[in-house]
Amino acid sequence: MKGRGDGGGTADTFRIAEGRLGDEPTVTVSAPDGQARATLALRGATLLSWQVARGAPGQLTDSTELTELTDGYRDEAELLSQDGVRAGLLAPFPNRVADGRYHHDGHGHDLLPGVVGDRLIYHGFAREAPFRIVEATATADSARLLLRSTSIRPGRYPGYPFALDLDVEYTIGRRELGIEIRARNVGGTTAPYASGWHPYFTLSRPIDDLVLQIPADTLIRTDASLIPLPGKEALLPLDRCPDLDFRTPRRLGDAVIDACFADLAPGPDGRTETVLSDPATGDELRVWQHGGYMHVFTGDTLARDRRASIALEPVETTTDAFNRPEHATALSLEPGRQREFRFGVTYLHAYLP
């Protein structure tokens, strides 16, 4: 890998090592002091695990145990099944496309040709696409991985006759993980495109006991199939929906959520932070993003470990954006142009005794 020395780094830099999850290639990044580690599968550039050491920096030792902060795929079978889309990177569309059909530039497209009955399709193709590492660099403070896929081409995915190159850049530090997805239109026609991320987070206890804060003013209203209502009917001020108003931090309890939040309020640095915290320990996960929406899913329908973790999903657009005229301009990626979406997560510990 470009930018790495023998053995994946030196004693005082982050280390990068290739491995396997069954037959699936992976890459693991470790802090030089052993107090942070992240593992990715090249399939989908999927985060499998992110672990950090709990406690104040001066209190940490080589024997300090790492705490798992994500609930990713545990083995090759889970990764291949894609159940729950655990930490999936969502492109060229996040969430659902109603009936698997959409219109773009005057043409109709069918993402599920020949399928009758259940026509549910969601979360795009990138989460199962092959990626390769094109660059990997390490310093004393972090590691950077650049992964690329050229699999989205006309004829490869039914109903999506467009050509995209996808770059996914991970920056992994001791307490923060950042991701940037970049899509370049390498075809000859304008392509509809949007991206997102579908991670599940855990603070080592059931989510009912955790506290959530979402700096959003608006809820996207949906029908029974979780497709947003038409036009402005979809926009519900959270003042009118107190059960899902998390602008002030509140305990999740038994709340069942599979909803998108809009009109996110950015902080002074221009990024929005959705905060998941454990009042018993003071631990916090701050899921940050530059623009877009926040989709929240409490994991009530997962095949494994329901409500053991919560999906906090930064997404560029709402569900079914391909069928919403108000999103057409934002979705359109012209030939030769590139679009980026940046997001990530920071772990904070209150250093309580």
Task: Give the amount of beta strand, in percent.
Answer: 35-45%
CATH fold group: Beta-galactosidase, Chain A, domain 5
Considering DSSP H and I runs of 4 or more, what fraction of the residues is helical? Answer: under 10%
CATH class: Mainly Beta
Structural shape: globular
Describe the strand arrangement of the main beta sheet, using strand numbers: 9-10-11-12-26-22-21-16-19
What is the total tally of β strands? 26
Order of helices and strands: EEEEEHEEEEEEEEEEEEEEEEEEEHEE
Structural class by secondary-structure content:
mainly beta
Instruction: State the end-to-end distance.
Output: 42 Å
Mean pLDDT: 93
- The name of the CATH architecture is Distorted Sandwich
The largest sheet, given as strand count, sense and whether it forms a barrel, is: 9 strands, antiparallel
Low-confidence stretches: 2-7
Number of helices: 2
Count the domains: 1
